[in-house]
Amino acid sequence: MLGVSLRGGPPASVGDTLDWEAPPSCPTVEGVRRRLAALVPGDRRAAGARVAATVRVEHGSEGWSASLTVRSSTGVSQHVLHGPDCDTLADAVALIVAVHLDPVSQIESASSHSDIGPKSGDAEEDVLRRAGDGALQPGAGPKVRKHGQASPSRVRRTPEERRRDRRLQRARRRGERGPAALGARLFTAVGYGVLPKVDIGAGLGLAWIGGGYRLEAVGARWFPQSAYVSGAGSAGAEVGLWSGDLRACPVIGPSDGIARWEVPICVFFEGGAMVARPFKLDDSRVGVGAWLAGGIAPSVHWRPRGWLSLWLELSGHAVLRAPGVRADGPADATGVFHHARPLGVRASAGVEFRLRPQRPS
After folding, report:
1. 38 Cβ neighbours under 8 A, 6+ residues apart
2. Which of 32, 274, 280, 322 could disulfide-link to 235, CB 3.0 to 4.6 Å?
């Protein structure tokens, strides 16, 4: 969404200038001048109107933004604009400058699209809404407050305009999600169902994060626990697990705000090796067996920064293959004294660092 913030300043005596600083992929300064000339032909300029506008456009992890300072004979105003692309910001800059050069015509033009006429505050708000039409939902323009008041305009839209708005909304949603990013994560986890006692582990992973989905590869070490042979005193084995997951995750979110929340719901397949190291047994050979499981893992991610995500996850899995830990002598009829349970649960917490590639400029 295109956001606008305003601050006032003292009058300044200036001539017409436009200082435009933007990445190479953006419109040129001449392109912005042409947009402005289309809005304010020379014969419509208000008498004595002069402006000097300074614009700096940047593209970062949160999208496109522009800082605009306009100095005119009536004062100084500063604007911070956010949009899905540089063309939208160029249109917004041209329209805001046009309001300073020809306020009456611009407000009348905005009022001609309104069902309720040019009431106080409405027409100017609609002018600024038109600056952000490439990034706003229908009828949901930025709120411009004067003397503590805000009043939205009702805008009549043709079928073609509504179709255009739907296309722009889809583009805006893609812009909010941003380009694909690579994430690196660290985590700790506790669970039940795999090892002899409580499962405790730690791991790391990589994630490819796109618009509305995640693909993950995760590895973990589940620390060994002691399993004892029934009737054999303190004899038994240390049983641990190395595991690796492949995950596909649709993502609910993110939501707008100071913090951004995401809810990935991952379906995963896990493979690994269960390792048993005997102690006080006649056979001291280390046993290794294949481990396979599958499950679902919903989680909640909180992004206090664009590059940082803190997350909590609760997962459940079903065992597809798990080796039994055996010893010579009676534990049960087969000699097995530990076997993973058919179902298990885990709770994980961690941090993810996101490296977002920049769009070419």
Report:
1. none
2. 280
180 pLDDT more than 70:
yes
Angle, alpha carbons 156-172-37 (nearest 5°):
65
CB half-sphere exposure, 85, CA atoms < 13 A: 14
Type of residue numbered 135: A
Residue 279: beta bridge partners? Answer: 236
Residue with structure tokens 């070419």? 360
55-81 pLDDT, tens digit per residue, is 999 988 778 888 999 888 777 888 888
The answer to whether the Cα torsion of 5, 91, 358, 173 is positive or negative is positive
Pairing of strands 336-339, 324-326: antiparallel
Band (pLDDT 50/70/90 cuts) for residue 25 is: confident
Rounded to whole angstroms, how far apart are CA atoms 254 and 263?
A: 8
pTM above 0.70, yes or no: no
For 344, counting Cβ atoms within 10 Å of its Cβ (0-12 exposed, 13-18 middle, 19+ buried), the class is: buried
